[in-house]
Structure formats: structure tokens, C-alpha cells
Amino acid sequence: MARAFDEMSSDDGSVRKAYETLSRWLTSVPHDVLDHRRKEAEYIFRRIGITFAVYGEQNAQERLIPFDIVPRIITSDEWTRLAKGLEQRVKALNLYIKDVYSKREVLRAGIVPEELVYQNPAFRPEMNGQSVPHDLYVHIAGIDIVRTDPNSFYVLEDNARTPSGVSYMLENREIMLRLFPELFSMHRVAPVENYADDLLATLRSLSPNGAHEPNVAILTPGIYNSAYYEHSFLADKLGVDLVEGRDLFVEDNVVYMRTTEGPKRLDVIYRRLDDDFLDPLAFRPDSVLGVPGLMSAYKAGNVTLTNAVGTGVADDKAVYSYMPEIIKFYLGEEPLLANVPTWRCREPDHLKYVLEHLGELVVKEVHGSGGYGMLVGPKSDKAQIEAFRAKLKHDPANFIAQPTLALSTCPTLVDEGVAPRHVDLRPFILSGSDKVRIVPGGLTRVAMKEGSLVVNSSQGGGTKDTWVLDA
Length: 471
Known about the structure:
Blueprint: H1 20-28, H2 31-48, E1 67-74, H3 76-100, H4 105-108, H5 115-118, E2 140-149, E3 152-159, H6 166-179, H7 181-185, H8 195-205, E4 216-219, H9 228-238, E5 241-243, E6 248-251, E7 254-257, E8 264-265, E9 268-271, H10 294-299, E10 304-306, H11 317-320, H12 323-331, E11 338-339, E12 343-344, H13 348-356, E13 361-365, E14 374-376, H14 382-394, E15 399-403, E16 409-414, E17 417-426, E18 428-431, E19 436-438, E20 443-446, E21 462-468
Parallel strand pairs: 1-21, 3-11, 4-5, 4-9, 9-10
Antiparallel strand pairs: 2-3, 2-18, 6-7, 7-8, 12-15, 13-14, 13-15, 16-17, 17-20, 18-19, 20-21
Helix pairs in contact: 3-12
């Protein structure tokens, strides 16, 4: 694997311009002071209840996501290039989903194989021919970005269903402002605090009935969901109601919320609930989390669901590999953000290559997430590689493979001091009927273990504040 690009230091040991002030500050502050601030941050996070649970773990307990107090810095020029590519990508995703559920021109043109749509478990036949408000499906996208060199950003994954993590982006900034005001005073950092206002403006713009003051609510599965903190956090920040399925009912294809003052009509529902559980009359009949009749109201055009039903058809790892062609097909443009090279194991020649190079590649399940169900060849022993070889031979269509990327590193506070650790970035893109909004920055995830390339919180990864420097 190639040597990782260090975002702070050049190969000759010199510090890159954007990091010069931070580097001097890190040198001047004793390690015990930094460690004390880190413990303060942990105490604050624990006090306000920012925890998550890992599903599938026996006796799973709520835990903190590790927070690194050393910010990740992106220049304004870098951000401008990145934002343009993100807007292009999400525009193409919306056009693709609309096409898949209507004319299917992309399939007839042979750009995307039909089986990747019709055999996709996230494909919703209920959405065939169904129009959605403003022809927008992905209103809130989280696009995972990695760097491997000073000049390029690569898309690692598209999250078009219910991308999470924005509460950590906002809380990370608040903690940094509280603990390191002197460091902020040395930089011109673009704010992220506008995200809640931008999200509310986006949601209101999506009202299906043109209401001047549309009623918005956030639909949560409830307190036992691993992301419940984020649901309640966003409802508080937006000043909207946080509801569960039992708080809502449908009458005459209109969705109402039960209140102490009587029924209140809802126009836009930001749902943090998977398709399967939205409506027991349309999907899983055993769901007690959803709202009976919700899909009827949705199909009647009386409520906007954010994100739209069926968006998962666009964000699995097999469809991801076709995104450059999808962008060209719908927009007639070259992609501004490149994909990571990807082998589709469903194709015999790709499978042959992957099987011959398992020890060098990262192999992922097409519908996997959270760092589960994957093989990192260079970090795996012979038994693990052979076990994965058997999985690939048994069900090759369920996997894709990619080179083992040397993810860029950022300075990170660890027990021994400040050291480089691998990072990725999840910016959040909001698509409303009026415009696209992107808060400068996003959630930087960091692999806290030395040498680890897995940044997911479920696998021990942490987060850090992302600073986009104003020009």
C-alpha cells in the first residue's frame, strides 16, 4: 500500500500553509493540557448524552464516540472544488432515482444493468410511476469523501436514505468553540451553525401543497434507536416536533399529528425510519413503528417524506460503481469527483481478478454498512482471506472490491502525543425546491487505532471538527 498523504506535513517535513498556525499552537501547548481538554470534552459529551449503541452486540451498552480535539483543516479553494462536485453528484442521483421509477431510460440505454435495479432489495415497486413533490428524492445526502493526494477528492460511498452524523458535526464545533476559543481567534473558520436553519428552510421548501407556513416534524423509531440522540437534537435545533408513529394518524389521505389542542396537519415529515417500517399497510405488516395509511397520503401528494421512499435503489455499492456513467448520461458532464476504482464481483473477469488479488484488496458487501461484512486484505490473515474467498465464490454478486487506499492522515491526539491517523469526510448536501445548500465542512471520521483504515464508530473510529478556512 502506498504511503498515505499527510494533510498537515509535506514529504520534506515542512508544514502545509493551512496548518502552519495549528502546528505552532500544538507545539506550544503541553501534552498534559491537551489531554485535560480532551477529558473535558468527553465529560461534556457524556453529560449531554451523546451516545450510540452497536446493534448485534451481546449486552450492547450505550457508548461515546471518541472525539479528537485536533481539528481537520480544509482550505476555501479545496472546499469550493469539493462543493461543486457534491452538488453535481446529488443532482445526478436525483435524476437517476426519478428515471428508475418512471421512464427507465438509463436501463434501456444499457448504462446500468436491469438486475441491479429489479433485484435490488431497496427497489420499491410501490414507487413506480409515482410523482414526488418537486421531482426531488434525495433531500438530505451524506457523501463519504476520501483523499489520497493533495489535489484530489474521491467519493467512497453515497448515502441517499437517512444519512446520520450531522449532530456530531454540530456538537463537535460547539465543544471546540467552548474549549479552544484562542485557537479559533487565530483562524477564520467558516461556520456550521447555520445547518439547522438551512435544513428547516429546505424542508419547508418541499411542502407538497404550497403552504406558506408548512408544518414539519421528525419521525423517529423511538428511544431505543441507536441514532435517537440525533433525532431529538435536530428536532430541538429546528424547533419542530419529534414524533413516533403512534403520534400520527391518517384521515382522508392527510397526515395528522395528535396534540393537546386537537389534530394538526403535517406537510413535511423528515423520517428517520427505514422504508420497511413506514406503513404496515404498505410494507411490513408487523411494524409498530410506522403510520397506517402513510403511503396512501404520500401517493396522494398530501405529504412530503424526506428522503423519498425507495432512494436506497441508488446508494448501494454496486450502483455506486456506475455513478461516473450516470453523471455523464443525465448531465452530459464529466464527473467533478472521481470514484474509487471498483471491481464488480458479479462480472466474471472482475471476480477472477479479485480472487487472484484478495490479499491486496478491500472487499465489501454491496448492501453492507458500518464497516461490517468487509475484508481488508493487507490487514487480514490467511484464514480470514480464505473464508472470504469462499463467500465470494458462493455469492459473487453480493460483493465489490476496491484497492486498499492509503487514506489521508490528519494530526490526532493519542496517548503518546499528536500523531497522524487516517480520516474520511461526510459532507451533508441539502436539496430543496429553491436551491442546494451545503454547510462548509461536514463530519470528519478518524480511525483512532494506529494503522487502521476503518473510521466507522461501530468499529472504534472517532470524530473531529472540520474547519473550512474562509478566504
